[in-house]
Design a protein that fits this description.
alpha+beta; 30% strand; disordered N terminus
Length: 874
């Protein structure tokens, strides 16, 4: 039986949350008292409770590891049941785990004397502190250098007197490819081959060699090394060697798994032990570095990675941490009225950086949702992407990355999002023979699970791709990137219009972000993002001088916009847009709206359109947006921690809805009051697009709490896939490790970075044309917000926005050459302007009406340096 989520994380079902407390957050630096924040403003978060129940991840772009916060490695994840944790170098799993014994006492073993006391998540590392064992205390640091197929574990041993201790290092291999999964055809029971173990020059070497007994399976040579920065005094090999997790409890491949297990039914690994005598000087202590390295290309690459890792492990760790501090120095915000959101922005940047993955020589194989295993259609030499989530979605997705783009650009992570979009293009071009359709899900070995030409969808990610490219071009001004991606974006929109409108009514068919029973053939989010995609394509076409595409795309979008309200507004008491139309069971094919209260009903307020000669606005009119957003804020759609996947309504014949009802419309779909970090991001963006910053705070605050609140965060600092919610019961920390949502999900950062930088600080770059608009809007009750080192084009900008009873002020320090600046401020409702000055001099200004409200804007010209706009109110 396959898990509930195959094509998309938003398919996971849910049910009331019991919250686990105990997260101790490191305090903010002096910025809390009003000083300017620094790049390391909250560089560590720690927890001391339920460490055995919390997952922890440490990630580099070519290697990652997942354990529990006590430093043990129970079986975890569900794509390959129980095998998604441990040590990985994409697309290959290396080890189930690694365990450390000190004079016979295993670190982290609750039954022993050296149990974990504290776990810390830092910028680029994790650290675990253990109780003293036999007079020796251990602090463990896990770090993964970027660009290297290896990870490092540093064990700092301290003692009050000089002594020599025996350190045992157990390792258990599981050399296994990321695909196939546990229920696909083939599955890992036939594809996975037995591992062998040996000892060579102070290292354990595990190998899996051969050709799986599966048609089209390639011969492979997988290798994993484990070694320390010193020679062992002894070693052992055998099928066990799992530290305190021997003998292992095995998860069954089908049926009900025990509450906790140590290996999977697919496991065919082996084990080994390295033992060291370590002298620990009194007071000063010593650090032992252990490395895990591997490769899907045999021992040569794996051995080289091991050698690099152990040549200067402390230096590699220091460089990784320094690189994360440098990344933290971009987009440093100061939000005196919302310090938790400020801290969330800091951690969201790190979450994005943690999510970057890279693999080589991807064999692009279209698997038809795991039902077949054909010969590869081609190869992509190198792919780099934002992994969607850990541990079960660390690979390349279309729709995930397109939402994540709206977090990546304000974070200044330009190279990573460009690489992600290139990887989507490259894999799509091979899998779909240059049709223009964007694939949905690509595993790190190149297997395309869903999104090939003959698959049913997803329409939305093909529509969103041109918008993601346009977004990156506008923020970076990178003309070469536009030129490189443009042809594919044209094919994207041609494919939708020419292939996905079989009935000729103007609305694309196919699957969207929500896949639930009773939906019509044509989905709201597909329609919304197709309109936006056409407008963004036309905008890029104007820059390219492609008049024919400009005319075609603008005309097509305009026709859809004219009919949008009439077609999609559900009417009656719903106060909202229908999530789909065109019931396949209706022979009249009458495009009757089908209203089911899914989160995609907010997308008309989420999608902003670039129209020639007009102020950018969301697709929904101000009037419709005000009604629809107010409705979605009611208890039938929004709970304590944010926006429900599917809201509640009156009882239906098919089983009813749980919770309060906000309308009279009967739905065939039961409510799903699970709260996703993406849903909060979409709702926060929709509110911000319409200037509703008081309402926006409900959703930005919810995502921030999911990272930082002691009662909510499983891994402090990591934004999860699903937040505590009425229909996600039990919560992650109380669920089996083989039945959890993601502990770290990239797209949730959309709900923090974009609202702060775009809506509140007001940045709207168009650097491809050398233009930059900065029009802030302060949240109600706040008198000052600021941000510095926000990347735009080839430089950066700092912004401070202030408000008092009679004055609004926007200060900009622009460090970009050749940028034409528009500077402004959104007026409070009902305010009138008495005077406007720029750098102390009276200046002509314009009042323009946008969806955010009335904006005062000034053409500040092409300038570099400081510009201060002061608006005096009557």
């Amino acid at each position: 039986m396959r898990p509930p989520s195959l094509r998309h994380p938003l398919m996971i079902g849910a049910s009331a949350l019991v919250v686990a407390a105990g997260l101790a957050a490191a305090p903010l630096r002096p910025a809390e008292a009003g000083a300017a924040p620094g790049p390391a403003a909250s560089a560590e978060l720690s927890t001391t409770t339920r460490l055995a129940d919390r997952r922890s991840v440490v990630i580099g772009d070519r290697f990652y590891a997942m354990s529990t916060a006590d430093g043990l490695y129970p079986a975890a994840g569900w794509h390959i049941t129980g095998e998604m944790g441990g040590f990985w170098t994409p697309p290959l799993k290396l080890l189930d785990g690694i365990w450390f014994g000190l004079d016979g006492t295993w670190l982290g073993d609750a039954k022993g004397k050296a149990e974990a006391e504290r776990h810390t998540f830092g910028f680029g590392y994790t650290r675990t502190r253990y109780a003293a064992a036999n007079g020796v205390r251990v602090e463990r640091t896990d770090v993964v250098p970027d660009g290297l197929r290896a990870g490092l574990i540093g064990l700092k041993l301290t003692s009050d007197r000089t002594r020599t201790v025996r350190l045992d290092v157990d390792a258990h291999s599981e050399l296994m490819s990321a695909y196939p999964w546990g229920w696909t055809t083939p599955d890992q029971s036939t594809y996975n081959l037995p591992d062998t173990g040996s000892y060579q020059n102070g290292a354990l070497l595990f190998r899996e060699q051969g050709t799986p007994p599966v048609a089209n399976a390639p011969r492979h040579d997988f290798a994993a090394y484990v070694a320390a920065d010193r020679k062992p005094v002894s070693h052992a090999l055998g099928s066990a060697h799992r530290g305190p997790q021997d003998p292992p409890v095995v998860c069954p491949s089908t049926g009900t798994a025990p509450d906790r297990c140590d290996d999977s039914a697919f496991g065919k690994g082996t084990g080994g032990r390295l033992s060291y005598d370590v002298r620990v000087p009194a007071g000063r202590g010593t650090t032992v570095w252990v490395a895990v390295a591997g490769s899907d290309r045999g021992t040569s690459e794996a051995g080289a990675a091991l050698g690099t890792a152990l040549r200067d492990p402390a230096g590699l760790a220091a460089r990784k941490i320094a690189s994360r501090k440098a990344l933290a120095a971009n987009t440093v915000v100061d939000l005196p009225g919302d310090r938790r959101l400020q801290q969330s922005v800091e951690w969201s940047k790190q979450n994005l950086a943690d999510s970057v993955q890279e693999a080589r020589d991807l064999r692009i194989r279209v698997t038809r949702e795991g039902r077949r295993f054909p010969a590869p259609a081609g190869t992509v030499n190198r792919a780099r992407w934002y992994g969607a989530g850990w541990p079960d979605y660390p690979w390349l997705f279309g729709t995930d990355g397109e939402y994540t783009a709206f977090a990546a650009v304000p974070a200044g992570q330009f190279d990573a999002i460009k690489a992600h979009l290139r990887a989507l293009r490259d894999t799509s071009e091979v899998a779909n023979a240059r049709s223009g359709k964007v694939v949905h899900e690509v595993i790190s070995d190149g297997s395309v699970y869903f999104g090939a030409n003959d698959d049913a969808g997803n329409t939305d990610e093909t529509a969103k791709f041109p918008s993601a490219v346009a977004l990156v071009w506008r923020w970076t001004g990178d003309r070469r990137f536009l030129d490189e991606m443009y042809g594919f974006t044209v094919r994207n929109m041609r494919f939708i219009v020419e292939r996905w409108d079989e009935d000729g009514d103007g609305w694309p068919e196919g699957l969207g972000n929500v896949e639930r029973s009773g939906m019509g053939v044509e989905k709201l989010d597909n329609a919304v993002y197709t309109i936006r995609g056409l407008r963004d394509l036309a905008d890029m076409a104007r820059a390219k001088g492609d008049a024919a595409t400009v005319t075609w795309a603008d005309a097509r979008a305009a026709a859809m916009e004219r009919d949008f309200d009439r077609t999609w507004w559900a009417g009656g008491t719903t106060d909202g847009f229908a999530e789909s139309i065109d019931d396949p069971a209706d022979p009249a094919n009458d495009n009757r709206p089908i209203f089911q209260r899914h989160w995609t009903g907010v997308t008309p307020m989420d999608a902003v359109l670039v129209r020639p000669g007009q102020v950018t606005r969301p697709l929904a009119s101000d009037e419709r947006a005000a009604v629809a957003l107010a409705k979605r804020e009611e208890p039938c759609y929004t709970g304590e921690n944010g926006f429900f996947h599917t809201g509640t309504g009156p009882t239906s014949a098919e089983g009813g809805n749980r919770g309060p009802s906000c309308d009279d419309a009967v739905s065939a779909v039961q409510s799903e009051r699970s709260i996703y970090s993406l849903g909060n991001g979409v709702m926060a963006t929709a509110e911000g697009n319409h200037g509703r910053l008081a309402q926006q705070k409900r959703y930005t605050a919810a995502n921030a709490r999911s990272q930082l609140d002691p009662a909510l965060a499983e891994l402090p600092g990591a934004m999860p896939e699903i937040l505590p919610s009425p229909d996600f019961d039990p919560p992650n920390i109380d669920r089996k490790l083989t039945d959890r949502s993601m502990v770290l999900q990239a797209w949730g950062a959309y709900g923090t970075l974009w609202p702060v930088v775009h809506h509140q600080l007001g940045l709207s770059p168009d650097m491809g044309r050398g233009r930059l608009e900065i029009v802030p809007q302060l949240p109600p009750g706040q008198s000052r917000i600021a941000g510095r080192d926000i990347r735009v084009g080839s430089g950066s900008v700092a912004v401070t926005a202030e408000a008092s009873a009679r004055t609004l002020r926007t200060s900009v320090n622009l460090r970009v050459d050749g940028a034409s600046l528009v500077i402004g401020h959104v007026l409070p409702r009902g305010a009138q302007v008495a005077s406007v000055t720029l750098n102390g001099r009276s200046v002509a200004h314009s009042l323009r009406r946008s969806a955010r409200g009335t904006e005062v804007v000034v053409q500040a010209g092409t300038r570099r340096g400081q510009a201060t706009l002061t608006i005096t109110l009557r």
